[in-house]
UniProtKB/TrEMBL annotation:
GO terms for molecular function: DNA binding; DNA-binding transcription factor activity. InterPro entries: GAF-like_dom_sf (IPR029016), HTH_MetabolicPath_Reg (IPR050707), Tscrpt_reg_IclR_C (IPR014757), Tscrpt_reg_IclR_N (IPR005471), WH-like_DNA-bd_sf (IPR036388), WH_DNA-bd_sf (IPR036390). One of its GO terms (biological process) is negative regulation of DNA-templated transcription. This is IclR family transcriptional regulator.
Length: 255
């Protein structure tokens, strides 16, 4: 009788909807990090019993929400929004919220697509985009994943964060730098000049410039970039655009 009653109760209990299950997994991630500290994607996947892709998506959702950030050694750590450091007078706003005024300013000045990105394992993740009003425009909405090595957004992150350079650099267009020696020299140049460029190296017909966003302590937390079609963005315009982005990105420190 007891077994039958338990079975009836199990059948009557409503199953949790997908969004509740996702929330539960997100809370499990936070609980794990509160107890164990910084965590890598692979270790988190093993602890929660999920695949690495799911673990990566959970972490990136928490990054976008401002609860988690990428720390040293490619390990994710909780932000002040979670741990509530005593030195803070207010909770830390999400990276997307804090950077949005910069994106809006750049979009108004350039008229081109403006992006905000963060590293996501071996790729770059676009977490916010303001599209150009022009009919001919670059389509990279929030949620887009792109290579680190041949995009301006990815290169600026590779130059300033302890991210792994792809073992084999893929030549995606005739302009892509695929030689390891030349690529290492390129990253040195990016560190010195403070911005990165993509001159039709990911897609033909598209150029891009990007600069790093830093916290007060100098930690790079993301990148902002501008991309546009070559018919409007000439090669000689790239470096001045990179310099402008570098200056604009410095305003993030004063937020």
């Amino acid at each position: 009788m007891a077994a039958a009653a338990a079975e009836d109760q199990r059948r009557a209990a409503p199953s949790r909807p997908p969004e509740v299950k996702t929330l539960a997994k997100g809370l499990a991630v936070i609980d794990h990090m509160l107890e164990r500290g910084p965590v890598r994607t692979t270790d988190l996947a093993q602890h929660l019993g999920i695949d690495k892709g799911t673990a990566s998506r959970l972490l990136q959702t928490l990054v976008v929400s401002g609860y988690v950030r990428l720390g040293e050694g490619r390990a994710f750590e909780l932000t002040e929004k979670m741990v509530r450091r005593k030195s803070l007078e207010r909770p830390e706003r999400s990276l997307r919220e804090r950077a949005r005024p910069l994106l809006e300013r750049i979009a108004a000045e350039t008229g081109e697509a403006v992006h905000l990105s963060i590293p996501a394992d071996d790729r770059v993740l676009y977490i916010d985009t303001i599209e150009s009003n022009s009919p001919l425009r670059v389509d990279r909405p929030a949620g887009t994943l792109a290579p680190l090595d041949c995009t301006a957004m990815g290169r600026i992150l590779l130059a300033h964060l302890p991210l792994a350079i792809p073992l084999q650099l893929q030549k995606r267009t005739e302009n892509t730098i695929a030689d390891p020696v030349r690529f290492a020299a390129l990253l040195d140049t990016i560190r010195e000049q403070g911005y990165a460029l993509d001159d039709e190296e990911y897609h033909l017909g598209i150029r891009c410039a990007a600069a790093a966003l830093r916290e007060q302590d100098g930690t790079v937390v993301g990148a902002i970039g501008v991309s546009g079609p070559t018919v409007r963005m000439a090669r000689e315009d790239l470096r001045p655009l990179g310099e402008r982005l570098k200056v604009t990105a410095s305003a993030f420190l004063r937020d």
